């Protein structure tokens, strides 16, 4: 794209090749049209998944960050304060995961029409019908 | 191969040219066009061992697999976006066979056409504004060096630091609001996304105060980018980041639904 090449590469984010994974995941997991396929991922599962990913990767990344103390001069923002913040955030995410997991068990967790189970069965029937015909 | 499932990347109007022969998608398989009644689904074969219902749930937990699949999905959509204005599907839309895909094109025809009409001739640009972690506060109030001399001095410094941070946060938000307003006026449509946070964003890029998407006519993209470029560097400590052109991922809601 000629338009793209005019922008400094640092701010362009190289979308076609090495685009930032966060930008790609944001779009392909969270945007794009939702169509009920034969094998349907429950939207709630996706939400659960992204939160889980954040939990797993966050603990690794944050641990790394703690080696680099950005605000060493500022007692208000010492690593202790951020550790508390991290613990609070993790706690909040865990609570959200539990909520979502409970929701999945109680009502099938479907955001759209029908549950994953129902869709799956319908899909199986359709598949069989078409193989028969 | 007959056991393979069908992964659908996008729906578009019939293409003038075939897809690039070297293009590969999820699982390394080349995508192809499946036409039905004036619409084209771009589909690729994927193995049941990855995309069957139970298997897919397990696979999604694997970050490396998910990242590779997301990149493959995006690379097919991006390739399509160079020759048409595709309507991208969400990751993991899978059908058992071609007739399932055709049935979907039939059932969803009206909605798909409405959205394709909206995004015709348009591309999506992503704009993010980052407030630098240190630079903004420092620019507002340089921190004295050395240890505080007393408890009172410590509290004074702490208050000054907090005030500076609040001030720069407020300025950043005002800047972001104004930028979004200006860009929205220029764009055919706009969406505000939740700010990005967490480990997948660049380390050290600061706090994300604006994360938005704009639907812009392809022909006016250059002017749009100039508009963004002018905003850059107007406030110290703020970084404006543009990504794109993307296929219109953020504009796939039904125009008639609202």
Automatic annotation (TrEMBL), chain A:
**Subcellular localization, as worded in the UniProt entry:** Gas vesicle
The record's Gene Ontology cellular component field reads: gas vesicle; vesicle membrane
Q: What keywords are assigned to this protein?
A: Gas vesicle
Extract one GO molecular function annotation from the record: structural molecule activity
Residues of the region (Disordered) are 97-133
User: What Pfam families does the record tag this protein with?
Assistant: Gas_vesicle (PF00741)
Bias class Basic and acidic residues marks the residues at 116-133
Superkingdom, natural source: Bacteria
For this UniProt entry, what is the primary localization, expressed as one broad class?
other
Query: What family does the database annotate?
Result: Belongs to the gas vesicle GvpA family.
Entry protein name = Gas vesicle protein GvpJ
Organism equals Streptomyces silvensis
UniProtKB/TrEMBL annotation, chain B:
- Which Gene Ontology cellular component terms are annotated? gas vesicle
Q: Which InterPro entries match?
A: GvpL/GvpF
State where the protein is found. Gas vesicle
Swiss-Prot/TrEMBL GO biological process terms = gas vesicle organization
Note the Pfam families from the entry: GvpL_GvpF
Q: Which UniProt keywords apply?
A: Gas vesicle
Please name the PANTHER family in this protein's record. Answer: PROTEIN GVPL 2
Q: Which family does it belong to?
A: Belongs to the gas vesicle GvpF/GvpL family.
Provide the protein name.
Answer: Gas vesicle protein
């Amino acid at each position: 794209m000629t338009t793209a090449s005019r922008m400094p590469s640092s701010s362009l984010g190289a979308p076609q090749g090495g685009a930032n994974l966060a930008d790609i995941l944001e779009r392909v997991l969270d945007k794009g049209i939702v169509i009920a396929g034969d094998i349907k991922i429950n939207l709630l599962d996706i939400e659960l998944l992204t939160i889980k990913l954040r939990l797993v990767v966050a603990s690794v990344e944050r641990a790394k960050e703690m080696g680099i103390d950005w605000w060493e001069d500022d007692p208000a923002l010492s690593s202790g304060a951020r550790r508390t913040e991290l613990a609070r955030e993790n706690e909040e995410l865990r609570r959200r995961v539990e909520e979502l997991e409970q929701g999945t068990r109680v009502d099938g967790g479907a955001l759209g029409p029908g549950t994953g189970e129902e869709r799956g069965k319908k899909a199986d029937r359709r598949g069989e019908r078409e193989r028969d015909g | 191969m007959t056991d393979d499932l069908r992964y659908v990347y996008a729906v578009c109007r019939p293409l003038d040219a075939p897809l690039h022969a070297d293009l590969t998608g999820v699982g390394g398989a080349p995508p192809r066009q499946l036409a039905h009644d004036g619409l084209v689904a771009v589909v690729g074969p994927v193995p049941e061992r990855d995309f069957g219902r139970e298997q897919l749930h397990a696979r999604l937990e694997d970050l490396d697999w998910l990242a590779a699949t997301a990149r493959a999905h995006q690379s097919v959509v991006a390739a399509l976006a160079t020759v048409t204005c595709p309507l991208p599907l969400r990751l993991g839309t899978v059908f058992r066979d071609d007739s399932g895909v055709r049935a979907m094109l039939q059932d969803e025809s009206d909605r798909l056409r409405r959205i394709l009409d909206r995004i015709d001739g348009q591309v999506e640009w992503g704009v993010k504004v980052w407030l630098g972690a240190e630079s903004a506060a420092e620019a507002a109030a340089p921190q004295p060096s050395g240890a505080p001399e007393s408890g009172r001095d410590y509290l004074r410094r702490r208050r000054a630091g907090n005030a500076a941070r609040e001030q720069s946060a407020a300025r950043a938000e005002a800047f972001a609001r104004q930028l979004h307003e200006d860009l929205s006026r220029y764009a055919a449509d706009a969406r505000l996304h939740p700010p990005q946070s967490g480990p997948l964003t660049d380390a050290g890029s600061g706090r994300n105060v604006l994360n938005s998407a704009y639907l812009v006519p392809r022909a006016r993209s250059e002017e749009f980018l100039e508009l963004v470029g002018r905003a850059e560097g107007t406030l110290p400590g703020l970084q404006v980041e543009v990504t794109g052109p993307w296929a219109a991922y953020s504009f796939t809601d039904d125009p008639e639904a609202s």
